[in-house]
Amino acid sequence: MKQHIPRRRFGQNFLVDQGIIRAIVEAIAPRPDDVLVEIGPGLGALTGPLLERMPHLHVIEIDRDIVTRLQKQYPPERLTIHAGDVLDFDFAKLPGRFRLIGNLPYNISTELLFRLIPYADRMIDAHFMLQREVVDRMVAGPSTAEYGRLSVMLQYRFDMLKLIDVPPTSFRPAPKVDSAVVRMHPRDKEATCLVDETLLSRVVTAAFTKRRKTLRNALAGVIAPERLQSLGIDPQLRPENLGVADYLAIVGALDGKTG
Q1: Can you list the domains of the chain with their CATH numbers?
Q2: For residues 254 and 259, what is the distance between their CA atoms, to the nearest angstrom?
Q3: Calpha distance 72→114 (Å, rounded)
Q4: % of the chain exceeding 70 in pLDDT
Q5: In terms of Cα–Cα distance, which of 121, 36, 50 is closest to 82?
Q6: What is the value of pTM for the model shown?
């Protein structure tokens, strides 16, 4: 088969390290009846090993040459190919609850993660390879340099764990950054203080846009310092000092549900 030349505009860095591939597949532990969706299958480093364990797989691929390549390799009863940009994909059309996997292009990874939040109730879990810096931000705790908007918005709906560090040498071509694999598991609705997510996003964005300011200044025009104090939150703290529960309390107060 003709050699595929990686396309920079699609952020293509193909995983070739067999040890890392085995570790990822073991972490996913696919079951035959899973509705498993691979984002960006590329040259099939994970696709092939996964299809050795299950009868069918969904993939989302934007590169038309790779789509053609996959169509030649696998019959449609084994591989359902959704050709197009994953940022335009409607995950609601997938049957039942689904699992996601993928080596996500670094240039769209953060945007895609935010787009997946509304589908948390339909997801069983997700295993993603991302730039290690992004994974560190996803799992970061309060009062750390990595903690920010991405941390709060994802931790509100998901429990997350960094599983595997992946060096640049595991890819062809080798990227200029380190990567990591993270597991995302949607939090149980009964254990989650569900709030207006649009309002939560507005509050968190306002806070971390001015993360070096005190809450009194960062959230000026959003919530009064006296209201923060009534919630047990010191207005002199910085946005990075608040945990997810604190932000949920602020949104609850603004929404008239608490405070």
Answers
A1: 8-191 (3.40.50.150), 197-254 (1.10.8.100)
A2: 8
A3: 33
A4: 93
A5: 36
A6: 0.91
